[in-house]
Amino acid sequence: METLQTDYIIIKSSDLVEGKPYTVKFVIPQKQEFKIKGTVYDKDLHPIPNAAIEIIEINKISGDSKIIGNIFSDENGEYSFAVEPRFELQYKITAYSPLIINYKSGKK
Which Gene3D superfamilies does the record match to this protein (predicted)? Predict the structure, then answer.
């Protein structure tokens, strides 16, 4: 998997499949705190609410990784979180499409 060095990451609905993860690895600039924010859209560019975003911190030296948080996109498909950038750290985002559950009401 390629590691991105960019100011933004676009996650398209065509990348999201229900029940399957979509993962992006990226490097962030050296600052005291770095805020990562984004919007998840469907194929028609409508925001996707309740998409799950998992944030994983990876130590480039030791190779160790750990989940540092899970968040959900809001009703506008937006999400944001802050990380502390350090030379030895990379971050990976995995986005999951919202789980759609259909309930039937009434008697059988």
Answer: Carboxypeptidase-like, regulatory domain (2.60.40.1120)
CATH architecture of 3-96: Sandwich (2.60)
Whole-angstrom Cα distance, residue 108 to residue 90? 52
Quote the CA–CA distance of 7 and 76 in Å, as a whole number: 21
Structure tokens at 33: 């705190």
pLDDT tens-digit map of 63-79: 999 999 999 999 999 99
| Closest of 82, 92, 86, 91 to residue 36, by C-alpha | 82
Rounded Cα distance, 16 and 85, in Å: 27
| Residue 49 or residue 40, greater confidence | 49
Rounded (10°) CA dihedral 45, 51, 54, 60: -10
With contact defined as beta carbons under 8 Å apart, do 22 and 93 qualify? no
